[in-house]
Design a protein that fits this description.
The protein is of the alpha+beta class and 144 residues long. Helix content is 34%, strand content 35%. The chain has helices at residues 4-9, 35-47, 106-135; strands at 16-22, 52-59, 62-71, 74-87, 90-100. Helix 2 crosses helix 3 (106-135).
């Protein structure tokens, strides 16, 4: 996507707070899948979601997808999905939620935060499940 630089320029790191989350899943069999296949499945899953756009970056065995929610003509940066091959037997999959300081009224802000987190969580869950389905691996479950 050629707009990568423009999209990143709209994000001021000083206005963000973050929280990191990991999947509560087994990822059984993921280490045996080629990185290109995992990359393809994750990107395909994100492309299939309405109102979601993403930008993928790769640095060696590390992949990162910036995930945006499309609101009318604006893109709202929700956070990141990351995948890293640590070694032949270990991989890491997780996501980082980005909270902007744009919304002022506290009550509206709390609702928006909850909605934005859920949208990001749904997108990354969809991506994880697509890899599981495409390659007949992994198990996903919610842990409260």
């Amino acid at each position: 996507m050629s707009e990568k630089v423009c999209l990143h320029q709209n994000i001021n790191p000083k206005e963000h707070l973050s929280s990191t989350n990991k999947f509560y899943s087994t990822k059984i069999g993921w280490a045996d899948i080629d990185d290109a296949l995992i990359d393809s499945s994750i990107s395909s899953a994100l492309e299939s979601l309405q109102k979601i756009q993403h930008i993928r970056e790769r640095n060696g065995s590390s992949y990162k997808w910036d995930i945006y929610y499309v609101m009318q003509d604006n893109l709202d940066h929700l956070g990141y999905l990351s995948y890293l091959r640590i070694d032949a037997k270990n991989i890491s999959l997780g996501y980082l939620y980005v909270l902007t300081g744009e919304i002022k009224p506290l009550r509206i802000k709390a609702l928006m935060i909850k909605d934005r987190r859920q949208i990001l969580k749904n997108a990354v869950t969809c991506a994880k499940l697509r890899v599981d389905k495409d390659h007949n691996v992994g198990v996903f479950y919610n842990k409260h």
